[in-house]
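Quick one:
INPUT:
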């Protein structure tokens, strides 16, 4: 017993000694840096066989590059050394003293932790004006600019933001770019205008000739007054700065530098719409519009319907406009309107048309009048309200039932049957001889009913096997359960139609639960960009991803903008369609 104890102790000490020889450490390029500087951090293990490397949580830092993995092996005078290194490049996002936690790695089944590192971040450091410093040269000749079309718009007035990258190509060239941080547009309805290809053009910056490219274009519509801030766009730039020497082939040698560019914050001072002259039926339409209410026909035959189109054309906040409804008399049956839009997004704003189309069916013949419909809007250029009144519409139903006269109906009396009355003598009868009826016994139906139980036996066996296969499909059952959950939330959204806030919450929840079932991730905790990236990895086509992101985006901003029942129904249908498309591709 004593010998066994000693053997066990020796083994434990040996393993512990081996583990003690393994070194896994964290090293940084500097422990004090400015807010605009970068930090190189390395995690190294000196033994082969390290696996399952897990980096620390880089809280208060953003990862610019990494992890890059490298290894080295050497043998000198019989002594071998090995080193496996994971490298990151990070940049602080706030000032203060921070402790970077330990990284972990698994070696021979044991989890090993590296040391923690304390880093102090101070104010941004100014780069000295040194013409020989490549980083200074690059930052002086590359600029990211946000150009806003109007810094003093009205509520509901469209403005544009164009982000341009200016480069003095005689002194520096741009080798690589990456968007590090997207701007936020709190208080604005916003829509991105896709820049399909960067096209370099000639321009000037600071009075000097530069080449520039447009990297992003946005259309914004403020939905509240006051000072609203647009956060900056940040880009990671890799630039090549000539060092004044050429290689063997005559090409200029470059010194590559990496740095971050920002467009800077922009403050938009949004003006409230004037109260003077505001029409009573004004609902927030801002722009330059034409309004019309037109029928496709005014003379109807029996059971024929007329289509009434309530249309708005022009330029302005078209997607945020609530169209007025029509009023009809009790003799007309009106169906829910069909909403359609044909809108193009340009830097000058939203242009095109939107309309509601009503189907109307007369209940009887006669003439019916649809009263005029009023619409008001504010023209920001003229700083003036306008009101438009449509012409009344007269529908003439030539055929159909007689119009109901309520006075006549109230005087009518029911006919009372009297058993003592003399009845008419029937000259013909409808009696059928029972002798002509077929006997059930021996009929075709009789034999079919006899065979049916026998036919149901193989059918029952087949259904039983299918049920067993379905029950054993654990993953499939989980997905079906999640699909039912998504449909339940879509059903809840349908019930909430007409209640804007509750509807969009339910709709957004349904979309996230559907993705949770299909992708096995908590999509409610990640951004729309990350969702799009995951769907792209699953080989979902870009158009479908864009449609899904658009529905999620609409759910987000629709809570703060005017919304009609028709718009909510359209969003509901869009959600069903995009779920169906994704389901076919996953």
């Amino acid at each position: 017993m004593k010998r066994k104890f000693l053997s066990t102790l020796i083994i434990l000490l040996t393993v512990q000694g081996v583990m003690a020889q393994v070194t896994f450490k964290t090293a940084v390029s500097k422990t004090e840096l400015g807010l605009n500087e970068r930090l190189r951090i390395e995690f190294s293990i000196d033994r082969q066989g390290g696996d399952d490397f897990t980096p620390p949580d880089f809280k208060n830092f953003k990862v610019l590059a990494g992890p890059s993995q490298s290894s080295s092996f050497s043998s000198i005078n019989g002594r071998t050394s090995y080193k496996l290194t994971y490298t990151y490049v990070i940049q602080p996002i706030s000032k203060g003293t921070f402790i970077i936690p330990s990284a972990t790695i698994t070696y021979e089944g044991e989890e090993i932790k590296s040391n923690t590192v304390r880093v102090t971040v101070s104010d941004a450091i100014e780069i000295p004006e040194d013409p020989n410093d490549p980083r200074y040269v690059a930052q002086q000749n590359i600029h990211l600019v946000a150009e806003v079309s109007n810094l003093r718009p009205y509520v509901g007035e469209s403005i544009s933001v164009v982000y341009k990258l200016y480069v003095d190509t005689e002194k520096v060239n741009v080798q690589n770019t990456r968007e590090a941080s997207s701007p936020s547009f709190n208080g604005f309805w916003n829509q991105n205008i896709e820049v399909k290809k960067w096209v370099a053009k000639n321009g000037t910056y600071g009075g000097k000739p530069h080449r520039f490219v447009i990297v992003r274009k946005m259309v914004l519509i403020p939905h509240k007054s006051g000072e609203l801030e647009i956060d900056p766009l940040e880009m990671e730039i890799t630039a090549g700065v000539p060092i004044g020497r050429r290689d063997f082939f005559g090409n200029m040698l470059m010194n590559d530098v990496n740095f971050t560019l920002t467009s800077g914050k922009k403050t938009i001072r949004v003006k409230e719409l004037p109260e003077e002259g505001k029409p009573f039926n004004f609902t927030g339409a801002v722009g330059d519009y034409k309004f019309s209410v037109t029928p496709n026909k005014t003379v109807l035959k029996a059971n024929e319907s007329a289509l009434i189109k309530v249309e708005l054309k022009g330029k302005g906040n078209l997607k945020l406009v609530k169209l007025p409804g029509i009023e009809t008399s009790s003799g007309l049956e009106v169906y829910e309107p069909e909403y359609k839009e044909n809108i193009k997004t340009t830097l000058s704003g939203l242009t095109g048309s939107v309309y509601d189309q009503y189907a109307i069916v007369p209940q009887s013949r006669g003439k019916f009048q649809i009263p005029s419909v009023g619409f008001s809007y504010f023209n920001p250029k003229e700083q003036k309200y306008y009101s438009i009144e449509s012409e009344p519409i007269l529908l003439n139903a030539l055929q159909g039932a007689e119009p109901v006269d309520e006075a006549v109906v109230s005087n009518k009396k029911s006919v009372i049957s009297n058993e003592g009355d003399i009845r008419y003598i029937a000259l013909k009868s409808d009696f059928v001889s029972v002798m002509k009826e077929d006997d059930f016994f021996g009929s075709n139906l009789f034999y079919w009913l006899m065979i049916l139980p026998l036919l149901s036996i193989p059918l029952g066996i087949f259904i039983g096997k299918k049920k067993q296969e379905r029950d054993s499909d654990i993953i499939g059952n989980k997905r079906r359960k999640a699909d039912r959950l998504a449909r339940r939330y879509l059903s809840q959204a349908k019930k909430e139609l007409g209640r804007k806030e509750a509807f969009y919450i339910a709709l957004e929840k349904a979309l996230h639960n559907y993705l949770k079932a299909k992708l096995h991730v908590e999509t409610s905790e990640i951004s729309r960009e990350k969702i799009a990236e995951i769907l792209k990895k699953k080989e979902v086509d870009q158009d479908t991803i864009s449609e899904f992101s658009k529905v999620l985006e609409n759910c987000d901003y629709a809570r703060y903008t005017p919304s009609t029942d028709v718009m909510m129904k359209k969003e509901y249908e869009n959600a069903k369609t995009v779920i169906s498309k994704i389901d076919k591709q996953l």
